[in-house]
Amino acid sequence: MAKLFLVPTPVGNLADFTHRAERVLKEADLILAEDTRTSSKLLQHYGIQTPCKSYHLFNEHKVCEQIVQMLRQGQHIALITDAGTPGISDPGFLIARACVDNDIEVECLPGATAFVPALVQSGLPCERFAFEGFLPHQKGRNARLEQLRFQERTFILYESPHRIAKTLQQLAQTLGGERKACLCREISKMYAENKRGSLRELADFYEKNEAKGEMVLVVEGCAKSGHTYAYPRPALTADFLLVAALPDRSRHLLLVKRAHEPFADRFAFPGGFVNEDETLEWAAGRELREETGIRLKDYGLVPQFFRPYSDPARDPRGRTVTMVYYALLETDSLPEVQGADDAAEAAWFPVDNLPELAFDHDRIWQEFMEEESRRKDI
Prior knowledge:
- The chain is an alpha/beta fold.
- The chain folds into three domains: about 5-110, Cobalt-precorrin-4 Transmethylase, domain 1 (3-Layer(aba) Sandwich); about 115-220, Methyltransferase, Cobalt-precorrin-4 Transmethylase, Domain 2 (2-Layer Sandwich), CATH 3.30.950; about 235-375, Nucleoside Triphosphate Pyrophosphohydrolase.
- The protein is built from ten helices and 17 strands.
- It has helices at about 20-25, 35-45, 60-70, 95-100, 115-120, 140-150, 165-175, 200-210, 280-290, 360-375, and strands at about 5, 30-35, 50-55, 75-80, 105-110, 130-135, 155-160, 180-185, 195-200, 215-220, 235-245, 250-260, 265-270, 270-275, 305-310, 320-330, 345-350.
- The strands form three sheets. Strands 11, 12, 13, 14, 15, 16 and 17 form a seven-stranded mixed beta sheet that branches. Strands 3-2-4-1-5 form a five-stranded parallel beta sheet, with helices on one face. A five-stranded mixed beta sheet has the order 6-7-10-8-9, with helices on both faces.
- It is elongated.
- The N and C termini lie far apart (about 70 Å).
């Protein structure tokens, strides 16, 4: 059965080409090359005489269907780009998707790609990372930079020599000049170089010095916010007010002690981010369970909606909305609770003797009490 092979090519040093990649290109019926002139150096070096045809950003939409038809007729086709793995900031995705849609097998060979060695040798955390490719040149560039400002993972950018100085200046201005970064130049070539420092230091250096060669920029992610949760997109959090009513008519509020700065050792309502696949009520109950061990269904309780909040003092950008839910538990004794997840401790407090609350929870609690007093629920 015919197959489309995606074949990585060296990003600099021709010796990085694998024996298997050489064999696949020699046995293929046709090679699709991003630039046949560039690829001819590699093919001649390895004595590969398979016919070549241009397949690049400007013609891939026009020739994609034709290539699919050739594959259907039983031809084995290999796709290569000027350097690296097809589909990574290069043509490849469109034809791969078309083959998948037409039940044509697609196989990508392991091999060279620029961002992996740049990431690993940068010295920045690499257990989780985001590959961003090239930034938009004009439209959408500022929006992308704003998103990167709140990226918590190490992220990787590709950039050309004549744009690198501008990009570094913009990153330093938007993300903060103290953010650590590593600029990897000419990966695997004779003059390969890794220049490490802060974004401001790198920006100043390339403002005064000419940049040469292909470049990969690896940038440290932002530090996690302890309370503002500054996300590049609107975010929902859910907080839960659980009040226990005892037979002696006393009322107690369940609170958790936060584990992280700047609100470490201060108490707040159980709560956290709403996941994309959750309802608000489910998220509120889940956060309560994860941080205190209290399961609403064990007591036959259903979250009751109180109101949303978006406090400029807590989130000046106005992009985080907190949905507050509550329930009243009538019980003979206070259930045992235990802090977990983002809570260092969980405990019940008499409503007339609460500790200092983190965030804007003190105000929310006062408004809740006033509202419940009017409804005579508490």
